[in-house]
Design a protein that fits this description.
Helix 1 packs across helix 8 and helix 2 runs parallel beside helix 3. It is globular and about 45 Å long. The protein has a 7-stranded parallel sheet with strand order 3-2-1-4-5-6-7, with helices on both faces. With 236 residues, it is α/β, with parallel strands linked by helices. The chain has a single domain, classed as Rossmann fold (3-Layer(aba) Sandwich). It contains 8 helices and 7 strands; from the N terminus they run βαββαβαβααβαααβ. The structure holds NADP nicotinamide-adenine-dinucleotide phosphate.
Length: 236
């Protein structure tokens, strides 16, 4: 049994974030999720936040701290895609994806670090993607944002490591959620052909890795990129 912690997961109303929150609850932690709409799983505290807005992030943290105590584990999971070929991609298509996926994680981590520095303890997990290091046609905006999270985790490790704060990246491959349901069937079939394990993953398979990284057994892992991709990325 790992030490019970106060955990905050962004985008915990559906998909991978919902599964992550469920897994932390199952392991006996105090769990809060941020959501723009809907609710986290039963047993989690749901707070409203938009990760593109620093004030709303600050308010959400204050609410969680008041109800559950200082946030010891933060999972920056909220993310969006706006896939299209480079020639069609507008500045806004690029900037809005980076603002949510990369700057959004920065806002979350910066606010979380206040309490973590004081406590001299913290676990930061950033949800990236296999395409951050592998690349993907039609996802110049998304892949750039997800690659940026690797530099962020490694810099956080160097800056905050001496205070027992770890920062790691989880890089999922193809996970069955609303995000991937939107992809055309032909593209899904093409992906499956390239995945050595020959199947997509469930959100729970990502959630268990995130919970492990935040737990006592992973206390000496920091600045790492952990793939959960059925072999698709092969170390990229
Ligand atoms: N599914 C995959 O195959 C896959 C693969 C690799 C990486 N990932 C990454 O895993 C994470 C979760 O993906 P998913 O598949 O679970 O996606 P999803 O089902 O589309 O859910 C995305 C979540 O992010 C939230 N979100 C989006 N923009 C936000 C904002 N500005 N402020 C606050 N919350 C916001 C959404 O909230 P609303 O419900 O309010 O929109 C939702 O909770 C993402 O970072 C994604 O890039 C997914």
């Amino acid at each position: 049994m790992t030490t019970s912690r106060t955990v905050l997961v962004t985008g915990g109303n559906r998909g991978i974030g919902h599964a992550i929150a469920r897994e932390f609850l199952a392991q006996g932690h105090r769990v809060a999720v941020t959501a723009r709409s809907g609710e986290g799983p039963e047993g989690a505290l749901t707070v409203r936040a938009d990760v593109t807005d620093s004030e709303s992030v600050d308010r959400a943290f204050s609410e969680v701290e008041a109800a559950l105590g200082p946030v010891e584990v933060v999972v920056a999971n909220a993310g969006i895609t706006r896939d299209m070929l480079l020639m069609r991609m507008s500045d806004d298509d690029f900037a809005s994806v980076v603002d949510t996926n990369l700057t959004g994680a920065f806002r979350i981590v910066k606010r979380a670090s206040k309490g973590m520095l004081k406590a001299r303890f913290g676990r930061i997990v950033l949800i990236s993607s296999v395409v951050g290091l592998y690349g993907s046609a039609g996802q110049v905006n998304y892949a750039s944002s997800k690659a940026g999270l690797v530099g962020m985790a490694r810099s956080l490790t160097r800056e905050l490591g001496a205070r027992s704060i770890t920062a790691n990246v989880v890089a999922p491959g193809f996970i069955e959620t609303d995000m991937t349901d939107e992809l055309p069937e032909a593209q899904q079939a093409e992906y499956k052909k390239n995945i050595p394990l020959g199947r997509f993953a469930s959100p729970d398979e990502v959630a268990r890795v995130v919970a492990w990284l935040a737990g006592d057994d992973a206390g000496y892992i920091s600045g790492a990129v952990i793939p959960v991709d059925g072999g698709l990325g092969m170390g990229h």
